[in-house]
Amino acid sequence: MKRRLSLPTRRVDLQRRIPFFYKKRTCYGVKGDTIATALYASGVRIFGRSLKYHRPRGLYSMDGECSNTMMTVDGVPNVRTETTLLREDMVIEEQNVLFSARNDLLGFMDRLDRFMPAGFYYESLHKPAILWPMAAKMVRKAAGLGHIDPGFRFSGICDEIYPAADVCVIGGGPAGMSAALAAAASGMRVILLEARPWLGGSFDYRLYAAGETMPLYEQAGELSSRVASNGGIRVFTRTAMVGGYNDNLVTAVTEGTPEDPFDYRYVEIRTKSVIVATGARERPLLFENNERPGVMQPDCALRLARTYGILPGRDAVFSVGHDFGLEAALDLSDLGVSVRAVADVRKDGHDPALLEEIHRRNIAFFPGWAAALAEGNKKVNSVRLSQIGTGRSRAFSCDLLAAAAGHTPACEPLALFCGRLAYNETTGYFLPGKYPPGVFAAGRVLGLEAPTSIRASGEWAGHEAAAFCGADCHAAAKDARKALDGLPGPHAGSNWIAHPGPGRKRFVCFDEDVTEKNVRQALARGFDVPELIKRFTAAGTGPGQGGISGHNLPLLVSALTKKNAAVPTTVRPPLRPVLLSAYAGNGREMTKKTPVHEAQAKQGAVFRRVGSWHRARYFSADLDVTEEVANVRSNVGILDASTLGCFRIFGPDALSALQRVYAGDMSAIRDGRIKYAAMCNHDGCVIDDGVVIRTGTNDYRFTTSTGRAGETGEWIRYHTRFEKWDFHLVNLTDGTGVINLAGPRARDVLEKITDADISNEAFSFGSWRAFRLAGGIPVTCMRLGFVGELSFELNIPASFMQAAWDMLLEAGRDMALRPFGVEAQNVLRLEKGHVILGQESEQRTNLLDLNLGFLWSRNKDIKPVGADALGQAESDPNRLTLTGIRMADTHAVPPDGSVIVNNAADRRVIGYIGTIRKSAAVGAVVGMALVEGPYTREGTRLAIYDGHSNMNVFQHATVVRMPFYDPEGERMRI
Amino acid sequence: MSLLIQCPICGRRNGYEFRYGGEDKGPYPDGPSISPAQWYDYVHANTCRAGVVREWWCHRQGCGLWFTLFRDTGTNVQVSAPEGEQ
Ligand SMILES: [Zn+2]
Questions:
Q1: Partners of A702 in beta bridges
Q2: Mean pLDDT for back-to-back runs of 10 residues, chain A (974 residues)
Q3: What is the residue-wise DSSP string for A659-726?
Q4: Which terminus of chain A, N or C, has less C-beta within 10 A?
Q5: Dihedral pair phi/psi, residue B17, rounded to 5°
Q6: Could you list the residue range(s) of the whole structural domain that residue A515 is in?
């Protein structure tokens, strides 16, 4: 199609052709086109098929407010082609069609509507139950738009920013721009959000001057150049607001252009004041086949012509209810569209200047008339106009029907900030009754139509917002209000809905194929308010989220029930469909690496994420830890345990704080000795374990598990918040590295690099010493036995970690010392029956369940957190208890977390496995499990359901004693 | 969590920086006579009132302080202390 060249309002660059693929053939758009306008210019009228009835659907609104023009683009389904900028070589496909949108083999569905009334899915297909899985599969296939390949990965770039502002203006039309300029004039930092690619709003494409000298598009241009040159205003175009929250937090998403370094950018704005200037959209006119391709909103038709240079049709009929509709008819007529007739639901109240122009052009005008029926199989070929009240009608042939019942405010952002909307009798608009502090509205969203009023209301709102933020501009705000009051106020809007009739093919909601008849059916069932009807019929629950159906639904319900205008349904974010990837943002991994991360990587470590850390889990490419384990058991290994939490607590009341959070008695710590200790929550459930040492008077060090380090500070302060205790807590985790040197030859290695006496006599199991390694590296060394061998746990300042690591490797070279990873440690500690919280325990597991009751001291002056609950749990025999199990089969290893059932016929679940591994030292597959008390006697046979096998095949295990390895603990005491 | 919170030390900050610590129910009930039901009530029972509630919050990504504030649970914004409380 040839486009109009000489249009001052044109926004596309006709010299820059952009190729794309549609249905496997190459088409061309031009720079500035959206996908939809490029397709329309290429002659495409049927963009897709509707969800339920597979009706042909076409371009309707241009702002992505319905699913009509959603398509699959480059493999991404449900792309809103009306708002998505055309890019080179895009591959565009139709969706929800069998064969093609033009000849959809599922088109017969349209005739089945009698058999699919509102609530069809709820009321059928669920009986008998045996049919449900099959029916569900069918429904799933039929329901939902677009298909996504399960292997599809979104390849776009998502970004996120968090700007702050004094005033955030939503909507870059004349009101929004005036507001931004007024607020910036008082020195406010202003952010202006505009969903379209340019500022200007409804003025951008209108030659009309409304009695002034400057046409509206020039007024828009003048305002936007002032905005652009104002350093106080940060403009975000292509940025639609998606959420508004309390304390005036605004979220939005920017769609990137090929020039941007991102495809989508999440924008979260912290602002003191918000001005909503989102304008109005056209309220759809309801008539039979009101969504047939060729029917579109007048605003859409005008923008196609004025902004994109595309004539929307040859022969047009207009059925409108607002002055803008008359203006659009006139302008399109001037651009060469043959306007056959203009119907207006209003009998009077038209702008006389527009009426005069209509008469001057000899356009047939029908006040008090409205479209009743669009005809044409796949596209409109004629329209029947009918007089309201009398039923007199006339048919006109046409290929374009520009239809709207009038304007309705784009008030969703206001609803997010202000809550419930109320019906305004003057405008016929749904508007908030009350605004929270700092929230203002301006422009067409309030029902203002006169360009002077629109601009003046923006200025007023801008001054008010600045005053709210503390600017000294109350006088300016007052003057602006006075000026606004002297101008034309809100326009009387039309609340006309439809001619009488059953409304079988009058679509209230395009996305979900909900007709007026469906709404009647819902009413007949007793669903008498829009909220309920929305749920029963699904109207407004599709991708457009009520953009099309939004205000027609309450108006229709109120007309049908003869009750006062009902309120629209609740508005929730996101206001526009947003890719989850956009919310996820740039997805940069925020993790920490230990001081010897690189060294371990060079030694072949395979890392896994643990909490906020990367930890070396394996030192073999095939993830087999047999050798790592064997080397620790028979020789010596080193493990990087730097991720463990490390804290210092000191001050006069440090001991009191420890007594409060640890179950055991921390006053009983002897000099040079290590106390193993656990923390419980109020329910007695174990949240952490570690060791505590006393390093001086009122000075302690303690460790936490990797995952708890971040929360430990909060935890201790929380449980001491009512006390006026004097203590200081320092998190040393990131500044402290830990190396566990473990194995029968550990002492031989350590002796080589320290002069300290580390003999078993001088430094026995369960104690700690502070000394220096060669080169003066200070260490706090603990003799612990987590892996069950002689071991020295060296706490080293992080900056010395690399040196100490290298020194140990060098010292152990002739003894075949090798690093081992967390998985080897997992096997080693499992053989010893040592628990890892979170693996052997979960939320409900208390200290007693883990056989750790000895860590609880009942006679402390300060009652520890969880003591009351532990006291109550003591007498409960049916709790799950930590139990050692040994598999009957020596090879099969069920997955961690496998469910344990009893051996009775009912196969009741009696527990689950925490960790289970094949143990070379034991010569069997052994594990730790939580099992109901009565099943924990040694020798009890348990059945394990591993989730992979057949429902009725179980593996068998026997309850055995723990530890599985070195039960007397001799090896760690050498 | 879009609300802003006034930390007594750091001033008004983004709500993301804070951890919610539950309704303020006063110090832990103590003494040997505490019944399981009393303890359960203290730990788990909340008023869940729609309106102004005094709560504990922790400025975890800031100074680390635990403090109480008043929040209107209906609108999810921090409010000043009601008449007679402080
Ligand atoms: Zn703070």
A1: A647, A692
A2: 84 95 94 96 92 90 89 91 94 82 74 71 64 67 74 89 97 98 98 97 93 93 97 97 94 94 95 97 95 96 96 96 96 96 95 95 97 94 96 96 95 90 85 92 95 97 98 96 95 85 90 92 91 90 80 90 80 90 87 96 95 95 96 97 97 98 95 97 95 97 94 96 95 97 97 97 97 97 96 98 97 96 97 95 94 93 92 88 95 92 89 96 96 94 78 87 95 94
A3: HHHBSS-GGGPPTTB-EEEEEE-TTSBEEEEEEEEEEETTEEEEEE-GGGHHHHHHHHHHTTTTS---
A4: N
A5: -80, -5
A6: 507-580
CA distances from A367 to A315, A322, A428, A927, B21 (A): 20, 11, 19, 84, 64
A5 is a domain residue: no
3-state secondary structure (DSSP) of residue A224: helix
Which residue among B3, B30, B36 places its CB closest to the CB of A872? B36
Best A469, A685, A721, A844 member to test B by mutation, with max B CBs in 10 Å, is A721
A194 and A225 co-located in one domain: yes
Give CA–CA dist A579/A256, Å, rounded. 13
Q: How many Å apart are CA A174 and CA A195, to the nearest integer?
A: 14
What are the residues facing B11 on neighbouring strands? B7
Which CATH number belongs to the domain containing residue A320 in this structure? Answer: 3.50.50.60
Domains of chain B plus CATH, in order, are 4-79 (3.30.2270.10)
Across the strands, what pairs with A158? Answer: A264
C-alpha distance from A245 to closest chain B C-alpha (Å): 6
Query: A521 and A616 share a domain?
Result: no
Domains identified in chain A, total number: 7
Q: What is the pTM of this model?
A: 0.88
CA pair distance A493, A478, nearest whole angstrom? 28
Is there a contact between A29 and A41 (Cβ–Cβ < 8 Å)? yes
CB contact under 8 A, B76 and A714: no
B34 at A interface, C-beta within 8 A: yes
Is residue A171 domain-shared with residue A266, that is, in the same domain? yes
CATH number at residue A48: 3.10.20.440
Distance CA A804, CA A800 (A): 6
* 3 state SS of B17: helix
Q: Which of residues 38-77 of B touch A (CB under 8 A)?
A: 39, 43, 56, 58, 60, 64-66, 75-77
A494/A386 Cα distance (integer angstroms) = 17
Distance from CA of B15 to the nearest CA of A (A): 10
- In-domain check, residue A25: yes
| A604 shares a domain with A743 | yes
Same domain, A447 and A523: no
In this structure, what CATH number is given to the domain that contains residue A673?
3.30.70.1400
CB atoms B76 and A682 under 8 Å: no
Tokens at A686, concatenated: 């174990």
Query: Are A237 and A173 within 8 A, CB to CB?
Result: no
Chain A residues at the B interface, defined by Cβ less than 8 Å, are: 245-247, 249, 270, 436, 682-683, 713-714, 717-718, 721-722, 863, 868-869, 872
Residue numbers in A near B39 (CB within 8 A): 868-869, 872
How far apart are the CA of A858 and the nearest CA of chain B, in angstroms? 12
Please report whether residue A52 resides in a domain: yes
Residue A219 domain flag:
yes
CA dist., res. A567 & res. A531, Å (int): 9
Residue contact A718–B21, C-beta within 8 A: yes
A717 CB neighbours in chain B (<8 A) are 58, 64-66
Q: Count the Cβ atoms, other than its own, within 10 Å of residue A606.
A: 16
Predicted-assembly ipTM surpassing the 0.90 threshold: yes
Answer with the one of A404, A429, A450 that is the final residue of a domain.
A404
| Burial bucket for residue B68 (CB in 10 Å: 0-12, 13-18, 19+) | middle
